[in-house]
Write a structure and sequence with these properties.
The complex is a heterodimer of chains A (189) and B (218). Chain A is mostly helical and 189 residues long. Chain A has ten helices and no strands. The chains are: A mainly alpha (189), B mainly alpha (218).
Chain lengths: 189, 218
């Protein structure tokens, strides 16, 4: 049995161990210092054959490294090094959504019915595309007005920031055929 | 038949990862094996990391000793490199071979050590005079102390003696593997025997060498 395990160890060193044999072998070697000692000598023999007389680690080196990991309670970093980059990928569209949501909120506040100031602000803030849109005080925006307003927001999102073009919300709105008509109309003006 | 007399020069210039005939095919098996061990470490099996340390301890110590002026520091810095590698193991994604990744950590650790002491790596010592260069190379070749040098020579003599005492089929198998870097399949083809026989012969050769080394190193 021991010979079989040690033969597996030898094959592991050469990269010739079947994957199915690895798990049990690693666990056995973890428990058995004699197996680890022999494995270390297999490695040392190869090094000595390839570079006789060269510098080698002293006999207790691997044990000292293992003890250092135990003594210092060293644990692998939980987060892979590239995780922040992955997080950044998600942050950019989220920022786009935040910008679009802010613009939508501002638009809703500006077109609140019954406030003259609101109407004035809309007229001041509106680009030429919105110049002819009636904003009667005291009345809710008609569906056509709402549609045109959303079209404006989409256009704004696409021109104001490249981030806006990538966010899912704007894309979903832009994908609506009715809104596209308004957007195209707004562009032509 | 290759004998020990045909082995690479004893200046430590080969480390088992430099190009040799058949090396690429050998490396792929070892790299795959390393990757499987790394995946196990990433899943929390500390024992798998110990095996990686055992496998690469000599190469890393040798590399660090080459970079530092004082080989006596090599093991401390190599140990630090292994600890750093363990900490960062979850960032290893298998884009490169494990030993390439580990070597990069070892080189950076050695450079940090040198920077903290305002010293330069041996590789850049073009301005060293001849006698200084010779002294440094001599220390690196033979170890930092007479005891280490003596042990290194004794290990080599013991391994050589054990190999010379092997039956020819075992000797051929272990040399084709360790020195020529052939895969088991290639050795089987060269020796006209099954792969399982090659595996067994290499194992028995290593066992014989281990029996010789054990009294020396215990």
């Amino acid at each position: 049995m021991t010979d079989q395990i040690r033969e597996q160890m030898s094959a592991l060193l050469d990269g010739e161990l079947a994957p199915g044999e690895l798990g049990l072998l690693v666990r056995r070697m973890e428990r058995d210092a004699e197996l680890r000692r022999a494995f270390g000598n297999y490695v040392l023999a190869g090094e000595s054959m390839r570079a006789p007389g060269g510098i080698t680690a002293s006999p207790g080196f691997a044990t000292r490294v293992s003890a250092a990991l135990d003594d210092g309670e060293v644990v692998p970093n939980a987060t892979p090094a590239r995780a922040p980059r992955a997080a950044a990928r998600f942050k950019r569209p989220l920022a786009g959504v935040a910008v679009a949501a802010g613009a939508a909120l501002a638009a809703v506040l500006l077109v609140r019915p019954g406030t003259d100031g609101g109407s004035l602000m809309v007229q001041r803030a509106a680009p030429p595309a919105m110049a002819g849109v009636p904003m009667p005080g005291g009345a809710s925006p008609t569906p056509a007005q709402t549609q045109r307003l959303v079209g404006f927001l989409v256009a704004h999102g696409q021109y104001a920031s490249p981030i806006g073009r990538r966010n899912a919300w704007s894309n979903a709105l832009a994908a609506d055929p009715g809104i596209n008509v308004v957007y195209e109309a707004a562009e032509k003006r | 038949m290759k004998t020990m007399a045909n082995f690479p020069p004893s200046d430590g210039s080969t480390d088992g990862h430099e190009p040799r005939d058949g090396h690429e095919r050998q490396a792929s098996g070892v790299e795959q094996s390393d990757l499987e061990l790394v995946r196990r470490v990433q899943r929390g099996e500390r024992g798998a990391f110990d095996l990686l340390v055992l496998r690469y301890q000599h190469k890393v110590v040798k590399l660090v000793a080459r970079l530092l002026r004082d080989p006596a520091e090599a093991e401390d810095v190599a140990q630090e490199a292994f600890v750093k590698a363990y900490r960062a193991i979850n960032s290893f994604r298998g884009d490169s071979a494990f030993y390439t990744w580990l070597y990069r950590i070892a080189v950076n650790t050695a450079r940090n050590t040198m920077a903290s002491r305002q010293r330069r790596p041996l590789d850049y010592e073009a301005d060293l005079n001849e006698s200084e260069q010779s002294a440094v190379e001599s220390r690196m070749r033979h170890g930092d102390t007479p005891e280490a040098a003596a042990l290194s020579e004794e290990i080599h003599r013991t391994v050589n003696g054990a190999i010379e005492a092997l039956p020819e089929d075992l000797r051929t198998a272990i040399i084709l593997r360790e020195v020529e870097g052939l895969s088991y399949e290639e050795i089987a083809e060269a020796m006209e025997c099954p792969v399982g026989t090659v595996r067994s012969r290499i194992f028995r050769a290593r066992e014989a060498i281990d029996r010789s080394l054990k009294p020396l190193l215990d």
